Amino acid sequence: MIPFLFASVLAQTPAQPPQIPSQEVLLPRQIRVLPGQLDKVPVFNSNSPELVQQEGILLSTFPKAGMATPAAHLNFGFNGRFDVFAHHIAKAATPEDLRTLYLGVVLHNPGDRPVTVDVLQAASYLSQPDAPFIELPAYVDNNRGDVYAGPGSRAMSDVLRGKRQEDFPAQVVIPPGESRMLMNLPIPVKTLEPPINGRSTSIRLYSDGLVYAASLAKFAAVDAQGEEQAPTLAEWEALLRQGGLAGPRDRTPTPPEQTSGQVVYGRVAGVSEGSRWQTQIVDDASSADWALAIPPVGATFSYGLSLLRLGTHGTGQIQTAPMLARYPDTAYEAHGNYAIEYSLTLPLRNDTNATQTVALLVETPIKEEKPKNPGNMRFFEPVPRQVFFRGTVRLRYNDDRGLPQTRYIHLVQRRGQQGEPLVLLTMPPGDRRLVQFDFLYPPDATPPQILTVKTLAPAR
């Protein structure tokens, strides 16, 4: 699976007692194909190389003409809605080299009139000190937005809530033929032990004209007083024109047609297609009576979240965003769907003749392509230490009193971990209850997960 250097190196966990060996357990889980599909919004997806120690171009969609390294430019323009996602790490190459690495995102207007880019939502956080990888319980209420573990967890929570961080302007106006900085932020390591830090960024944008984008990595210059200085726009533009790809390069991915042996998914550097998966989950989409019947007592059904190649749990459904443009040594697909929003509506209905208690859960079963035991999924007991998901989900529904509720819950799940109820609904016969489930898939998570609907057996 994708190596998650960022979280594993930066996680701040106390010394642990010896781990009790995990045993696989089979649990009944009927997994269904998730209706709908990703939208067509392009995503500037900058995640390779994840670890940056050589300055240069991380991702450029500029035209190739006039560039010193034409292969570093993908010639892809954005117009209208698009997203920017960036997730990179700085680590001192030697103990003495503690320079601050800056991450810059440049937008360019190639046209003959000004272009206005609206910054709809935006968040960018460092691991240190903004959002360290702290140990958290599996389930924590996060209505105030102050619970997070890692910069990806925090950034996705902010964007889910519709926030625009104060570091970002509401608009960027780009004169004809000129460039402007969307972001020019540091990833410092000087005071850290070990000297490693990372930054996760998610930005939603709307442009009223054609623009090109580039993310670049550059070390801070030092002035005559020995103080570090952030790179200027002119310095970023010079790097864009004269530089090559940043390094070191990540592992080259396995071609999609290879399905046996060691499979390397790779990290993403390119333009992926799809910012949001929005759908209503119903039993019969052709029926005028849109509803999702709850499962029988004690039973479940589930829907995949971020299902990917060789990890579809028997559905054959690959939810991974396709690439519209990419570098040859980077991922063929946007595995993990980082920063992509899932917006799922479940119009639940109790078709039984008794009052039922229904739970919604997020779970992280052991990844499978073709299950050996159809109708079941594999989990671990006890779960291993490796965290596979850190992030906030939102649920909107009417409670048992008929009052509207909005809840944010931060989840931490390890490989093979069963879920805890996110919400419990007491549904009389014939009752209907609309539940809206939303989250942005956080970086430093390992797909896939599942959303499970379960009707609880009566307590004895």
TrEMBL record:
<dbReference type="InterPro" id="IPR021801">
    <property type="entry name" value="DUF3370"/>
</dbReference>
<dbReference type="Pfam" id="PF11850">
    <property type="entry name" value="DUF3370"/>
</dbReference>
<protein>
    <submittedName>
        <fullName>DUF3370 domain-containing protein</fullName>
    </submittedName>
</protein>
